[in-house]
Design a protein that fits this description.
The chain is α+β, with helices and mostly antiparallel strands and about 300 residues long. The chain folds into 2 domains: about 200 residues, no CATH class; about 40 residues, no CATH class. It is built from 11 helices and 9 strands. It is elongated.
Length: about 300
């Protein structure tokens, strides 16, 4: 029988990786079809999403994000700690959980590689040593949008591990020193608690966004929704436009998270620049659009003075 992969850290390619967390952010364009680099902080949204996934168990779980392993910049995306060991997590995504649960999140467009698998295994092993936690009391979860076929083939052929799907989008890796699962987020089912992680991506249509709204309306006050809603709706403008005006509840959500105001502001800026191209000076534009002078100047030139000469 081959030795568990995570137990053989000397041979893992951890040294080929920067130990600083790389936050690559690949989202969808305005049309929802064209991949592009953007400033969407998917990890911030993930922090909300993983908490929302287990919100019914917030009293028995604690979440530590960007968890420092030591004084050096070694960080784990999330460490979920079961504060009460006898509590059963009635959520298929958390069914594997033990005392300490390491979670690695891959942003949309990023891919879970063999190197990532080794790296996170090394981090988990180091956590075990530094915190005195037995590896038998730990699990490792990888969350990504797509199924990592190359990694699965590597684990099965090189180490003889078995990777099996226990629920839609939830794959257990059997044979390693830790309990390991790979979450293929785009295939998660809402009834399995997957709405938050499933929709943590670009390219959503109105139906996907509406599922988020319906779920958010049932969340208690104080739920960690802000970063999640802001990032997901900001990355899915085409889907938002599809839903605009279709339901009062949707518009209420947009207003609550500031999207309506941002789009209105963007529309005014376009009007100001269009009038400038037609020969109007800033004072004329302000009078025509009934806007404050400093607003017009901000649209035309953010570095200019805040009042007309």
């Amino acid at each position: 029988m081959k030795a568990p992969l995570f137990s053989n850290l000397a041979n893992s390619p951890v040294h080929g990786y920067s130990l600083l967390k790389e936050n690559r952010t690949i989202t969808r364009g305005e049309t929802g079809n064209t991949p592009r680099q953007n400033t969407i902080d998917w990890h911030a949204a993930f922090r909300d999403g993983i908490q929302l996934t287990f919100y019914p168990y917030r009293h028995v779980l604690s979440f530590e994000f960007e968890h420092p392993l030591n004084t050096e910049p070694l960080r784990i995306d999330a460490v979920i700690i079961k504060k009460e060991q006898d509590v059963v997590i009635d959520n298929p995504i958390g069914a594997i959980f033990k005392a300490v649960n390491i979670v690695e999140y891959k942003s949309p467009g990023d891919y879970l590689s063999t190197g990532d698998y080794h790296k996170v295994g090394a981090y988990a092993r180091l956590y075990s040593v530094l915190n005195g936690v037995e590896t038998t009391d730990m699990t490792v979860t990888f969350v990504g949008e797509a199924y990592p076929r190359k990694l699965v083939k590597y684990l099965e052929e090189k180490y003889g591990y078995e990777v099996k799907e226990v629920k839609a989008g939830i794959h257990y890796v059997e044979g390693d020193i830790f309990g390991v699962q790979i979450i293929e987020s785009k295939r998660l089912k809402e009834e399995d608690g997957g709405v938050w992680l499933k929709n943590l991506r670009g390219g959503l249509n109105g139906e996907g966004l509406w599922a988020i709204i319906e779920k958010s309306r049932g969340m208690p006050k104080g739920s960690p929704l802000s970063a999640y809603m802001y990032m997901v709706f900001g990355a899915n403008r085409a889907g938002v436009k599809e839903m605009m005006g279709m339901a009062d509840a949707f518009e209420e959500v947009l207003e609550e998270y500031g999207f309506t105001a941002k789009w209105e502001d963007r529309g005014r800026e376009k009007d100001v620049r269009k009038l400038q191209k037609h020969g109007m000076d800033p004072r004329q534009i302000a009078e025509f659009l009934e806007l404050p002078s400093d607003t017009v100047l901000r649209y035309l030139n953010p570095a200019c003075e805040s009042k007309f000469p």
